[in-house]
Amino acid sequence: MSGAQPGAAPGPASLDPDPIRRFRAVFERVREAGVPEPTAMSLATASADGRPSVRMVLLKEVDETGFIFYTNLGSRKARELEENPRAALGFFWQPLEIQVRIEGGVEAVSEAEADAYFASRPRGSRIGAWASRQSTPLGARTELEARIREVESRYVDADIPRPVFWSGFRVIPDRIEFWQGRPSRLHERDVYLREGGAPGEWKIHHLYP
Predict the structure, then answer these.
(1) Are 203 and 191 in contact (CB under 8 A)?
(2) Are 113 and 167 in contact (CB under 8 A)?
(3) Rounded CA gap, 158 and 156, in Å?
């Protein structure tokens, strides 16, 4: 990749000391550039015995403490996070040659957060959340379609509440790396490491490409 222009990388002292704030600024730049699916991110989890798995999910919110996504609590990712509550996230916005890598512990969002987000989803997505037995074997597509019709008939004239088996997780970062593509693969990499586990205290390092 060689679309980005070369130039001297800023020193750690000149970088934003808050990686969440820096992420928000980068993300806004990505959105303004019209990059398709800017919220798409890889989510890596591992089972209790260390078997890894990765999939693409959508970032739904970033707050001062972390990065939030939602899922069926019966899914493989949710089961692995219950066994091993750590995760890694990866963003790659190819048109701008930007990557962001995030690692940290994971906690469940509050019931209020999950309810508020579920209520904001399109009706079809809420029906789908009830109908899907995510990650379990499906005999035929008609089985899923029948479940969808059953949910539609159940809530034909009513609001659709959040299922108890559907909620969200917040990845609380202790490591965030920003990667900017440069010619000749001499990329710029800045990593933020949380110091002593204290919120808001980060040490910044440049890394060789």
Answers:
(1) no
(2) no
(3) 6
Cα 133 from Cα 145, distance rounded (Å): 12
Catalytic residue of the set 22, 86, 185, 189:
185
Q: What is the pTM of this model?
A: 0.90
Q: Which helix (H) or strand (E) holds 57?
A: strand 52-58
The reply to whether CATH 2.30.110.10 applies to domain 16-207 is yes
Rounded CA separation 169/151 (Å): 25
- Give residue for tokens 């219950």: 82
State the Cα–Cα distance between residues 151 and 52, nearest whole angstrom.
34
pLDDT digit string (tens) for 85-132?
Answer: 999 999 999 999 999 999 999 999 999 999 999 999 999 999 999 999
141 labelled catalytic: no
Q: What are phi and psi of 182, to 5 degrees?
A: -135, 160
Q: What is the crossing angle of helices 141-154 and 123-131, to 10°?
A: 120
Our CA angle for 110, 111, 114, nearest 5°, is: 90
| Cα–Cα distance measured from residue 176 to residue 89, given in angstroms and rounded to the nearest whole number | 9
Residue 91: which H helix or E strand, with range? strand 86-93
What's 80's DSSP letter? H
Beta bridge pairs of residue 71:
167
